[in-house]
Amino acid sequence: MSGPVLRIDLDDFAANLTVVRARVAPAQLMLVVKDDAYGHGIERVVRRAAAEGVRWFGAFDVREAIRARSAAGPEARIFSWLTVGRTEIAEALSADIDLGVGDAGFLEDIAAVAGGVGAVARVHLKIDTGLHRNGIRPEEWPEVLERSRTLEHEGVVRIVGVWSHIAEASDREDDDARALFEDAVTAAQAAGITLEVRHLSASAASFARPEFRYDLVRVGAFCYGVRSAGGPAEADLGIRPIAALNAPVTHVSEHAVTLGVGSLHGLPSSLAKRAALAPVEGRLSVEHVDLGHTEVAAWPHAAIGDEVTVFGAGGASATDLAEAIGTVGEEILVRVSPLVPRVYRGE
Ligand SMILES: Cc1ncc(COP(=O)(O)O)c(C=O)c1O
Hints:
Elements: E1 5-9, H1 10-24, E2 28-32, H2 34-38, H3 42-51, E3 56-59, H4 62-72, E4 77-80, H5 86-94, E5 98-101, H6 104-117, E6 121-126, H7 141-154, E7 157-163, H8 171-190, E8 197-199, H9 203-208, E9 216-219, H10 234-237, E10 243-252, E11 256-259, E12 286-289, E13 294-297, E14 307-311, H11 318-324, H12 329-334, E15 342-345
Parallel strand pairs: 1-15, 2-3, 2-9, 3-4, 4-5, 5-6, 6-7, 7-8
Antiparallel strand pairs: 1-10, 10-11, 10-14, 11-13, 12-13
Helix pairs in contact: 1-3, 3-4, 4-5, 5-6
């Protein structure tokens, strides 16, 4: 190898899917594929997951949802959760995408576009349970439900879901969020809405807290083998990282080894003096990261051309590196530059 390579093992991915699905059953898995499937490549990931029987996919925006639709085929359900403009709503409806709705104005836009093209939009109403990122405020909820019923009667929308997103940072806050979520679901049902799915939790709560699973769980990180920063180890969760960033040794001196990977490839320069490329403290400690190279502590018999695991299976995990610089494993993965070739196993 002459430069870094991101090796992605789709068989390991399939094994993680099996673990996650068994854990959350009878709830179904919605595989989250935002940010190009956390840097793993949306098309290949979705294709493999669909072949493994995954039926729901969660995308950040309509652009990604449409990519997921092409890869998953017509039977899959694709959910897009970002509020978008009318052009994208039309594109989403023609690709049969389910739309997340976090404000009353967006519901009107969807109804107008659906009415114009003779479609019935499938909508998942989002209640704001405390994150304040986006979501209908509890005090506005009754009015939005009433309006939803009217639009259902007009035949332009069908409310198929109620959902929200939680911080998964403290059980107490998550419990408070869940109480608001329960109230929102109860109110929707009392308003005469027939819900197909309720979804609230992501990786951590889906695994640890059965009462958060409802009908669907939106899981990204654990399916890709990325554990939560500060959370249980991959082995305890039964998952393994599906990607490994490998880089060649390009120079060897008495005290240091240089690897052909640097910040231009997406490696944070802040790893210097803080992280080690193996889970053992002090082993292969990162000395310096420049644009194209990374210097690590020397080890016996290092030779130019050797391939070193910067993170991933067999080395430090993305979350190990992330913890050293106060971030999360997802960030380490999505930073890997599109210039770094992806090599897939198990296609
Ligand atoms: C709305 C929403 N649902 C689910 C997820 C998946 O989270 P995780 O990767 O922790 O499973 C995310 C991730 O950012 C999200 O924003």
